[in-house]
Structure prediction request, 500 residues.
Amino acid sequence: MILFLSIPRIAPVRPQHGPAVLKGICNELSEPAEIVDINWDFFLGWGRSHKQAVNTLDNYFVEFATELDHNTQQVYDAWLDSWVKRIVDRQPKLICISVFSWQSQRFTRDILPRLRKHTNAKLLIGGQGLVHCQNLSANWAPRADFGWEMLDAGMIDYFMKGESENTFRQFLQGDTTVCNNDAFNKFYELDTAPEPDYTDYPVQHYNNGYKTGVLPIESSRGCVRSCAFCEMSSEHGDYRGKSGRVLAEECIHYYHKYGVKDFYFHDDLMNGSLSDFRDFCHTLLKWYDYKGLPDRFFTFSGYWIIRKQSQWSESDWATMARAGGNLFVVGIETGSDRLRKIMRKGFNNADLEFSIAQMHKNRLKFYFMLISGIPGETETDFQESLDMLSRWQKYVATGTIIGENLGTTATIEEGSDLYRNPDRYRLRGLGNKPAHGINWICEDTPELTYHERVRRRVKIQEHTQSLGYPLWKGNDHLRIIKDQYILNQVEWDHEYRTRI
Prediction:
């Protein structure tokens, strides 16, 4: 039997898509397989009776400079050992661990030695957490350094990089050359992708507030834009879309199979292809009408890019709302049109104001992200972000804005245009190293040191809270900022001494 492990740390709001896709491939090949959601147990099973330990461990997973106290370590060890026993008792021949992001790396390090000790099963890891960088996924990173580290330490037999719909099938058929290399594997045939199998997940019992649960859906790979700070265009490759009709039929199929009526696009963006997205909405509305169902019988949410009114009109907003549009997650990044143009976001404040007004009009929900200390950000740019938040307070009061994510501070990630072309943005690194992570200075704004970025990040959180915005993990992100500084303190101390 093949065993797939979904592990901490992932927000426990819906089943993880990757293991479900891989189990679907197993089904097609008549390979017995099972998914075990250890992440669900951490937060919503075992975690319910060990809340203090979970709170401490939740920080431990994301703060690499933090170690566990003796009591928490004992509780954690006992829980890990109990899971290893449950895994080994299933007698799998292959154990596949989904390292969803860098936030899953510490758990991976902790469970692999125990599995190695107690089972002869082959161990394979994959996912976006195959690299050490906190914002970079493994797909287009030049080197899957976390994967190589685990392989060199003898903790795993294989790692698989990139999109695995084809390569995992080849691996099961005996081709191990698709593993343990840094080549990126890309999947194009989205309309004929394997059907994900969610039957092993407790679909109705995640922490999302929806009675019938939420399932992930996917309409595309890659992104139609190429923001300067974002590595997605290189990581996830060129944009590849799924037919809107096929996607709507998938939602209908999931409703009949699992009873689920609420869906979350886990793409980089749900409206990359406007024609496919319109087809998706119209197909759902035709099905509602055929079945005598009300508008918004389904709901769907996900990442959204701001479009101009000429591209996505008032009637488009109204149609989408009737089809089930629910929550839209948007990377606003800044309130400055000047800075947003440099970052190649592809929209301006006028487009943004029109979009949020339409969300309010159509009773849709808006969750957005801002970045403090973007390279080149002046005090005037920063003030424009503060002013935007003040201007939008009315949408907090009406319930249109349901969340804000301030993250940590701006980082420069391998694969982004900022990293590839530092001279274009007048960037330099510290200590004769490339501008990377938090270790950079923009020559146009030399005052924007890491300390100044952190000051602005703290100030914008204080402003946000004074206006009553619902803030997502604000203090947790501040702790990660502190952790990042501790891990990079030598470089920045040297930079400050050099300046003095």
The chain has 19 helices and 15 strands.
